[in-house]
Amino acid sequence: MILTKLSNIANDINTLLFPHACFGCNDRLIRGEKLLCTVCRHQLPLTDYTFNEENPVDRIFYGRINIKKASSFLHFTDYGIVKNLIHNLKYKNQEQIGEFLGNWYGHIIKENDHLPKIDYVIPVPLHRKKLRKRGYNQTALFAKQLAKHLASEYLEDVLVKTANTRTQTKKSRLARWYDNKSLYEITNAELLKNKTLLLVDDVITTGATMELCAEALLKIEGITLFIASIAVVD
Question: Where are the extended beta strands (E) located within 66-158?
């Protein structure tokens, strides 16, 4: 009891000297809050997509790639909590946000139990130059947490990006497709034969990047492919 009280006092002093801010609204966090304040947690726009009924993420890929099901955890808008989270995750060295969100969504997916047994969880890769510059793949910890909850194996290097393309947030869907064509390759196709995979990205906008990664994976014999992301642009 005494040790617990001392630990709480030490934590309060640490928070006072080095206050942590909410990644959603930038307000100061209080004891018990982690990464997001209680208000932002309650306001986080969850999609309620859990690989069961047809959803708007599925419809992005209709007629484009032969996947079984697609899903996203959050709705992404031009302003708000999700945009702030993704910005901090990708550009402010806050990789722990991916772990936090992956643990949350992984728990939801596991509880709903609509997915079949997933053999491997694979993140959309960064080119080695971008990975070296950023220091981490922003999708990695999110994907790792999904793998943990699904009792699946996480595979990081089986799908690789072969060219370092420019940022693509302002490009049209067609321009993105031509820029990214044949940029993704498989390093160990034999390992993936006849397996069920979950391909994971941070944000799905037009779906062009996921489409090209999926095309590379679907060339392998016997692949069953599902798609997930942290967020989807409405």
Answer: 69-76, 120-123, 153-154
Contacts of 2 (CB under 8 A, 6+ apart): none
Nearest alpha-carbon partner for 67 in 215, 193, 231:
215
Strands 184-186 and 159-161: antiparallel
Angstrom distance (rounded) from CA 12 to CA 9: 5
Around 208, how many Cα atoms within 13 Å sit in the side-chain half-sphere? 18
Q: What token pair was written down for 78? A: 């031009």
**pTM of full prediction above 0.90:** no
User: Tens of pLDDT along 128-180?
Assistant: 999 999 999 999 999 999 999 999 999 999 999 988 765 455 556 556 655 55
- DSSP 3-state of 98: helix
**CA 23, CA 91: separation in Å to the nearest integer?**
13
Q: Give the tens place of pLDDT for each residue, 87-114.
A: 999 999 999 999 999 999 999 999 999 9
